[in-house]
Amino acid sequence: MKFLVTPRREFAGTFKVPGDKSISHRAVMFAAIAEGESRIQGFLEGEDCLATLNAFAAMGVQSQRLDNGDVLVQGVGKHGLKAPADDLDIGNSGTSIRLLTGLLAGQAFASCLRGDHSLMTRPMRRVCDPLGLMGADVVTAESGTPPVEVRPVTQLQAIEYELPVASAQVKSSILLAGLYAQGETTVIEPKATRDHTERMLQAFGHPIQKQGNRISVSGGHSWQGRTLQVPADISSAAFFIVAACIAESGEVVLPNVGLNPTRTGVLDILLAMNADIEIRDQQLVDGEPVATIVARASQLQGIDVPTELVPSAIDEFPIICIAAACASGTTRITEAAELRVKESDRIAQVAKGLKTLGVAHEEFADGLSIVGGRIGGGCIDSGSDHRIAMAFTVASLAAQEPVEILDCANVATSFPNFVRLASDAGLSIDVCE
Ligand code: S3P
Question: Is 312 helix (H, G, I), strand (E, B) or coil?
Answer without folding.
Answer: helix
